[in-house]
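Two proteins were folded this term; both appear here.
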Amino acid sequence: MASSLAMPGAPPPKPIPIKDRTSIVFVEKGQLDVVDGAFVLVDANGVRTHIPVGGLACIMLEPGARVSHTAVALAARVGTLLIWVGEAGVRLYAAGQPGGARSDRLLWQCRLALDPDARLKVVRRMYQIRFGERAPQRRSIEQLRGIEGVRVRTLYENLARQFGVPWKRRSYNPADWDFSDVPNRCLSSATACLYGITEAAVLAAGYAPAVGFLHTGKPLSFVYDIADLFKFETAVPAAFRIAGQHAKGRLGAAEPGREVRLACRDTFRKTRLLKRLIPTIGEVLSAGELEPPKSPEDAVEPAFADPPSSGDEGHRG
C-alpha cells in the first residue's frame, strides 16, 4: 500500500479504517523516510526496516528518531497519526494530525460541550460505561469527578494487590523519567500507548482532542475522556502485570517499559479496542440528546465533489 501511495501520479489514497488497523508502533534511533516507494526506518548502518504505515493507527517517535518531509506527507495521506514522545512515551511533545476532513462532528461536539445540561448527560454516560452502573443522581460534574477519583485510587490498590506490586500512589514527573518508581513508569508507558491510539481514533472520526467533557483545559482533554473508558480494561492491568513480574524478578534483563508496550499491543488486539473506539465516541456524545448541526439551506456546494473515502469519516484521504 505504501509503495503505490508514494509514487508520483498514483491514484488517490484509500485509508484503511481505524478498526481494521494494528494499534501502535514505537520508533527510536533511526530516520523515517520513503525510499524506493516504501515507508521505512533507516538505521545508522543504512539498514532499512519496512513499516506498513497505512495499516497502523499511530506511530510513536521516541528520542533519536528523525522523520523526513516525504514520510510525514505519506503518513498524513493514509491517516496514520505521528506522535513525538519522550522516552517510553512518558512525555508528549507534538502530534501530526491526519483528521479534519469535515466539520459537522466537530460542531456537534462543541455544541454538546457548551450546553451545561448536555455536557452533564455525556459525563453521566461516561461514568456508566466506565463503572457499569448509573452515576449518582443530583451530582455536578465536579462531584462526579471527585467520586471517580476515589474509585480509581481503589482500583489501583486492588490491581497492585492482585499482581503483588508494592504500591504507594500514582506519582510521576513528565520531565524526569527516573523520578518515578517502576510501577508508575509502567503505568506511564501503558497510558501513553492508550492515549496514542485513542487520539488517532478521535481525529479519524472528525472530533477535536482538546474539547473535553469531564477533562477540560488540556490539549488532549477529549482523548483522556474516551481513553478512561477503556483504561482499566486494557492498559492499567497490563502495566501492573508487568510491574508484578519485575517485582518478582521474572523479567530478567528486559526493560519494563518495553515489555509494557508489547503487553498493551497484545491487549488492544485481544479486546478489539480499535473496533470499539469510534462507535463508543458516538454512543457517549449521543447521550447529550442534541442533534448534530445540519448544513444551512443556502450553503454553497463544493465546486468539485470528492469521491467517497474508504477510511473513517474524519480522514482527509
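Next, the second protein.
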Amino acid sequence: MATRKKTGRKPSPRKTAGKPRHAPVRFEEAHLSSRPIWQGSLRLSLVSCPVALYGATSRAGNISFHLLNPETKNRIRMIPTDPDIGPVERADLVKGYEISKNHYVVLTDEELNAVKLETTRVIEIERFVDEESIDRLYWNDPYYLVPNEKGGTEAYVVIREALAETGRIALGRVVMHTRERLVALEPRDRGILVYTLRMADEVVQPKDAFSDIPAAKPDKRMVEIARKIIEQQEGAFEPQKFVDRYENALRDLIRRKERGEKLVTAEPVEQNNVIDLMEALRKSLKGKAGAPRRKTG
C-alpha cells in the first residue's frame, strides 16, 4: 500500500460550517484626502502660483449606516424612478429649477458651463481685513491651500510671508460644488489656511432669532453666582479632551454586536424639570451638583 510522503508541513485546518469569520471592526481616523477638492491658481495682483485645496477636517471616522433588507441583509439600491413610467437611467437625467409647482426650467451641461466664472480656476485676493472685523457667524469650513507645482512654491511662500508680517486676513472668491464662495486666507505654520465664509444672505441675523426673548434684566444675585461658577470652570481650550460620546457609544455598540453579545436596554431616567433656580445656582457654586465630567479618551 502506498504511503504518503512526509513534507514537514502541518495539515491545513478543515473548513467548518457556520458564520464566516471577519476581521475586528476598525474605524478610520481623520486624514488628509489623497485628492484635492479644487485645483487652480492663487493670485495677488500680477503674482500667481498653482495651488490645490484640501479639506482640513475629515468625517471618514463618523458612523454611517446603510439601508438593508432585513430578510436577506442585502444593501438596498436607490434607483431613480419616474412616477409615470418607472425606473430611468441616471445618465439620462437633466437638471431643472422649479419655478412653480411641477413647472421647471431645464438646463443642459453646456448652458451651465457657459456661465462658469473665473473663480472656477483662480482665487484672486481682493481685499485685506482684520480678523476681528469678521463676525464668527460668517466663518464656515476650513481647508488647506498648498502649492500644486514645485515651480510655484516661491510665489506661494512670498504671499504667505506677506500675510504673516501684516497680520491681515486676505479675502477672495472660489467656486466649489457649483457655488461661488467668499474665502478668508491666513498664514498657518508653513502654509495657508483657507476658510469659506457665508454670504450675507445666508446668515439669519441675531435680532430676528432672539426677538421673542424678554428684555427684562435677571436678578443681580443670580448673575453674580453664575459668574463665580464660570470663573471656577475657566480653562484653556484643549480639543483632545472633548470627544463625541454618542459616536463612541455607537462604536462600542457595533463592536459588541459584531462579537454576538446580547444587549440590555437601560430604563430611561426620569428628570424633574421643576427647579428652584437660586437654589440650583448655590448648589452648583458649592460643588454639590458638580460640573459634568468630560471624557479624555
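The radius of gyration is 29 Å. Confidence is low (pLDDT under 50) at residues 1-18, 293-297. These notes refer to the second protein only.
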